[in-house]
Design a protein that fits this description.
About 75% of the residues lie in helices and about 5% in strands. By secondary structure, the chain is mainly alpha-helical. α2 packs across α3.
């Protein structure tokens, strides 16, 4: 069915823009009239495929919470999506909601509409599909809203913790470039014809190289960075690097905590939504964020399918905290697996927050020390020939 980009008047006289699927412009006009809109102009898009707008974790949380609230209040699903398309929100998000609403009007289920749209994560689609079968979509939406809200909070904390060290590193690079390109050349003119110490000669050569071939060095650096990024995305290389991350001192422990928290929270959300433990596990592996851990999930699923307990299967995973399997065992024995997983995820979220704070407190002074060492290195390189020159002048006057 063709996809139209339209402008229409609301009953309050405001202009509303959006996208709708309709057989033709006449059908679009009638569709909009049913929503209380008067069509002004419409343009059929050349590619009628969905926009593939991808909501972020914050927008997914808002979508689930708003939809769950209206469903729990007794608002029909189609009506709820219609209301959400009319609310004030970014045009990109409104376009996604409009596509869902149009698909529901054609008789698709919400999970089918979300899958066809292309921007929703498989995790959420699976949870919605399970809740459609169980009839508890409002409960499932509330759980997924909490899931994505906490995921967004965790990502924000990671970005915040990483900002200051990255800023210090960038500042160090800028200071070094300024020193080598603008400050040192004025000093080196004093040293012409002198026999320079090795450290000073090295700094002089490096400064000259940056001034004469700075653009070439920059281009080579960018090419190297792009090539390195491409290599690190290769599946075999990514598998090795993700495994190596878990072996790093301090950082490895922090990553294990974060990965364990993601696993526990995601599995709890899916299991509570009505998915079987096997389906929940299959949907969870892609949310961990580590390909090495994800590669071990086939073994977990196979063990559970063959009758092994989840606790026993998870105990063999290299990359999760050792306490995870014992907590799962308690949940399986008590019949409260989803609650135990959710409780553990909350605990690991707190532990990860504390670990990131400690890691930042270690990285910040380390970068400051590195900056100080570089500056001291430059100062020594400049002062040595100056002192030598001063001593030579002093010796000359003594005669």
């Amino acid at each position: 069915m063709p996809l139209f980009k339209f402008e229409a008047n609301t009953t309050e006289g405001k202009i509303k823009k959006g996208r709708r699927e309709a057989a033709d412009k006449r059908a679009l006009r009638e569709l909009l009239l049913g929503e209380g809109l008067t069509l002004i102009d419409a343009e059929e898009l050349e590619n009628g495929a969905p926009s593939k707008g991808k909501p972020n974790t914050e927008e997914l949380s808002e979508f689930c919470r708003e939809l769950g609230s209206m469903l729990s209040a007794g608002v029909p699903l189609v009506r709820a999506l219609n209301i959400m398309t009319k609310e004030d929100r970014p045009q990109r998000v409104r376009a996604v909601y409009s596509e869902l609403y149009a698909s529901l009007q054609r008789g698709s289920s919400l999970s089918e509409a979300m899958a066809a749209q292309g921007g929703f994560p498989p995790l959420l689609i699976s949870a919605v599909r399970a809740s459609e079968s169980s009839g508890q979509m409002d409960v499932s939406c509330a759980q997924m809203a909490n899931h994505y809200e906490k995921e967004h909070r965790t990502k924000s904390k990671i970005r915040t913790a990483a900002f200051y060290p990255i800023f210090l590193l960038a500042l160090t690079v800028v200071i070094v470039l300024v020193i080598f390109n603008f400050i040192l050349p004025s000093f080196f003119t004093l040293f012409e014809g002198m026999e320079l110490p090795a450290i000073t000669q090295f700094i002089l050569n490096l400064s000259n190289a940056l001034q004469e071939h700075g653009l070439i060095i920059l281009i080579c650096f960018l090419i190297f960075a792009a090539l390195l990024a491409f290599i690190l995305r290769l599946p075999a290389v990514k598998l090795r690097t993700d495994r190596l991350k878990l072996r790093l001192p301090v950082i490895g422990r922090l990553l294990k905590t974060i990965y364990t928290s993601r696993f526990a929270r995601t599995l709890s959300s899916l299991y509570s939504s009505g998915l079987t433990i096997l389906n929940a596990l299959q949907n969870t592996k892609d949310t961990i964020g580590n390909s090495y851990i994800a590669s071990q999930f086939e073994g977990i699923v196979a063990e559970v399918r063959n009758g092994s307990s989840l606790a026993h299967a998870v105990a063999s995973v290299d990359g999760f905290d050792s306490k995870l399997s014992s907590t799962i065992a308690i949940g399986e024995e008590s019949g409260n697996l989803d609650y135990m997983l959710r409780s553990m995820a909350d605990t690991y979220d707190y532990d990860a927050d504390q670990a990131m704070t400690k890691l930042t407190s270690i990285i910040e002074p380390a970068l400051i020390i590195v900056m100080a060492i570089i500056i001291c290195f430059v100062i020594v390189a400049v002062m040595l020939p100056i002192l030598s020159l001063y001593n030579s002048i002093g010796s000359g006057y003594s005669f």
